[in-house]
Amino acid sequence: MRLVVDGFGKFLGVKGETVVVREDGKTLAHVHPRELEQVIISGKGSVSTDALRMLAEHGVEVLVVDLRGEVMATLMPPMMRTVSTRREQYFASRDSRGVEVAKAIIGAKLKNQRAVLGTLAKVRKDTDPELAERMYSAAEEIRKLSEEVELVNGKIVEEVRETLINLEGRAAGFYWETLKGVLGKLGFEERSGRYAKDPANALLNYGYGILLGDVWRAVHYAGLDPYGGFLHADRPGKPSMVLDLMEEFRPHVIDRLVVKLVSKRMISPDGFEIVNGVCQMRDEVRRFYLEQVLGELTSEVRYEERKFTWSELILYQARKLAKFLRGELTSYEGFWQRW
Question: How much is the average pLDDT of 16-44?
Answer without folding.
Answer: 86
